[in-house]
Amino acid sequence: AQSVTQPDIHITVSEGASLELRCNYSYGATPYLFWYVQSPGQGLQLLLKYFSGDTLVQGIKGFEAEFKRSQSSFNLRKPSVHWSDAAEYFCAVGPSGGSYIPTFGRGTSLIVHP
Amino acid sequence: DTAVSQTPKYLVTQMGNDKSIKCEQNLGHDTMYWYKQDSKKFLKIMFSYNNKELIINETVPNRFSPKSPDKAHLNLHINSLELGDSAVYFCASSLPGTGEDTQYFGPGTRLTVL
Questions:
Q1: Could you tell me how far CA B6 lies from the centroid of its own chain?
Q2: pLDDT of B76-111, one tens digit each?
Q3: Fewer CB within 10 A of the terminal residue: chain A, N end or C end?
């Protein structure tokens, strides 16, 4: 069975500082990996995804993530955080056995201090 | 040109009532989903429909009944609402099997049962 761990429930950074959100997964084959962002009161928006190829993936809003097979990780990074980045971030891995249902992590809440 | 839309955005109702949430997607996807997000932001898959047929039905009370009149719509009907049904419900859609198994989410419906 596939699983996703986001070890940090909350992360607090200062505006302008760099950011790294951790995601570790467990999956038997080459995974599909996703990062979604959920702003307060909003739905989930896809930031970026990895299916194959280049292990460094660029996304929207200046985010990037790196797939590291040896570490079973897909950490999300941003070099300089803006106050508007404050949101909930979800890592997901999928699909599973043809059901096409990704497994989501518990989310990391990003707090940005001015 | 909203991709995945849900109505209503907010729903406040009394225990015991029956209510419906509607979902529509204009992405040409053939698979649609309902998720429940609890107060701790955990996303749990409830149902998945592919081409109007139920393919995933997780452990959900039978008070919840999805209906898919066509590929573009997946409605959720809830009978005899209970306090524990209070949550945010997200609809999503995807086109699995094409190498683009990305789920696109609606804005969510916040259900409050009093």
A1: 9
A2: 999 999 999 999 999 999 887 666 568 899 999 999
A3: C
CA distances for A108 relative to A11, A57, B32, B63, B67, angstroms: 7, 20, 26, 32, 33
The pLDDT score that the predictor gives to residue A96 is 53
DSSP-derived letter for residue A98 is: T
Give ∠ CA A99-B99-A6 in degrees, rounded to 5.
65
Candidates B2, B98, B70, B77; CA nearest to B34 is: B77
What is the token pair recorded at A9? 């429930």
> CA-nearest residue of chain A to B100?
A51
Which residues of chain A are within 8 Å of residue B33 when distances are taken between CB atoms? 101
Residue A103 above 90 pLDDT? Answer: no
Residue pointed to by tokens 């990391």: A108
